[in-house]
Amino acid sequence: MPLRLYNTLTRQLDPVAPADPASITFYTCGPTVYDDAHIGNFRSFLAADLLRRWLESPLCILENDPQGFSGPRAVRHIMNITDVGHMTDDDLADGGGEDKMQAAALRLLEQKKAGTAHTSDAADIENPSDPRQIADFYTRRFIDDARRLGLKVAHEAETDPSRMPRASHYVEHMKRMIEDLAGKGFAYKARDAVYFDVQKYESYGELSGNTLDKLKGGAGGRVDDAHQADKRHQADFLLWKSDPTHLMNWPGPVIGGVPMPEGYPGWHIECSAMARDLLGETIDLHSGGEDNIFPHHECERAQSCCATGDQAPSDTFARHWFHPRFLLVEGKKMSKSKGNFFTPRDLFAKGHDPAAVRLELIKTHYRSNANFTEQGLKDSARTIDRWRKFAQSSQPGNAHDDSVLGRFAEAMHDDLNIAAAIGHINTWIGAVEKPTAAHAEMLRALDAVLGLLDLTPLASAQTDIGVFAAGLEPDPTVIERLVARREAKKAKDFAAADAIRDELNAMGYAIKDIAGGRVEVSPA
User: Fold this and answer.
1) Could you tell me whether strands 466-468 and 461-462 are parallel, antiparallel, or unpaired per DSSP bridges?
2) CA separation for the pair 424, 435 (Å, rounded)
3) Which of 74, 301, 337, 458 could form a disulfide with 470 if both were Cys (CB 3.0 to 4.6 A apart)?
4) Do the beta carbons of residue 349 and residue 471 sit within 8 Å?
């Protein structure tokens, strides 16, 4: 059975049928780098990575490639980095609220003053008020997390930066697309902004199921009355905003022969410009979290179709739309106020193995709300340990039964039924009495799709002052305070030693004395 995958646009399981089965184009909406990406974000990114790995597998069959894998099937996967500094209410048509980069700058300044800023990397930000330095800081952290969790596109970006393009590098492409849309009559200038005219695109709303009569407040919610009055339809969405107070500005596009004042692009136009430049006018697959369906992907589809061709909109921008659902934590929506909000590096700092985190995030079907739990993470860690031991088998012999390959493929062809696929692996491993090198090789072939066994386990960092728990880097400031504490204890100034311990605890480090005058450092 060829691969069938739910298509958000058609609302049914459709066969994946790329234009060229040997060279598939795949675009994933990536992070906005004004803060660390959380595990809910990574659930979506990892689902896209799983799909990409399955498409590349020799076991995967596509409907328009009925003979199966007959050679190297390349997937050109692009994941953007949004670093132009949008507004906190970017889902609104007029991008209201606070500048996200300005909010990040204030947050980092407060953390530095309080001594709780991110260790090691925070020193790289010479000026926390510089939005580009903030974007660079969080981009580095995202890519580091992505590589530790095995996202292939993040590893490819090491040698091919175009795999993870930065929006700030494509502003000229966005401006040209805006000018093209305006020239064809799909966009118009209104006071200090350029809007897309949704009434000119008859298919607007097909992806999300919205209709224009339902959209009373712009794409995504409320906008102020002054801006609404400038628009031809309340649902028209922003392509360009001129705003001298915005932290990141560029010369504006030329509309009707008149240059717009400096400003910044709308959120939706970024992905249209990057996808078109790097993958072409029509792409095979487009993914993002379910929160991207509306307004982002609806608007992206509209402007991309209207920018393609002559005067009439193109029929297709993306052939297949892939949207993983939200992640819950212990059965509840993630929230910092509830204390159940985690980033990957939060989990690494607690000593959790990246492979276990990845498995916990991918093992629930992408169209179900996943529930991330502490117990589930422990179960995933045990599974990883079991598989690693099995994969290390070196006894000579044959695998005898390779039917697990067929069962695994059948599950994956059925809308990426990952739970069934993992279940088949566990059943097979449980039935093997004496694993051989051939069994180990077969498991690794299956794991090429799951991406678990090659991830590097965390290891404790050793220093002459103590042992830092898995995921914690021996930060120089912490080392300095630990040395001062040791000297205070030698001088029997226990009050000073206790004060330093409390200081480190307030910084997020728990200190435990161990043999040899050393300490064990773990997250508080």
Assistant:
1) antiparallel
2) 16
3) 458
4) yes
Tokens read off for 384: 């990883």
Q: Which of 237, 265, 267 is nearest to 253 (CA)?
A: 265
pLDDT in tens, 100-120: 777 777 777 776 666 555 444
Find all residues with CB under 8 Å of 114, minimum gap 6, and list them: none
Strand partners, 75: 24
Confidence (pLDDT) at 91: 47
Burial, 406: exposed, middle or buried (Cβ in 10 Å; 0-12, 13-18, 19+)? exposed
Residue 307 main-chain phi, psi, to 5 deg = -80, -15
Please calculate the CA angle 296-371-116 and round it to the nearest 5 degrees. Answer: 75
Look at residues 276, 303, 275, 293 and name the one whose alpha carbon lies nearest to residue 197: 303
- CB-based contacts of 402: which residues, under 8 Å, 6+ apart? 442
Backbone φ, ψ for residue 239 (5° rounding): -110, -35
Q: What is the DSSP letter of 257?
A: T
The conformation of residue 99, written as its DSSP 8-state character, comes to E
Count of other CB atoms within 10 angstroms of residue 77: 26
Spatial contact of 303 and 272, defined as CB atoms under 8 Å apart: yes
The three state secondary structure string of 404-459 is: HHHHHHHHHHECCCHHHHHHHHHHHHHHCCCCCHHHHHHHHHHHHHHCCCCCCCCC
Distance CA 96, CA 220 (A): 11
pLDDT at 119: 43
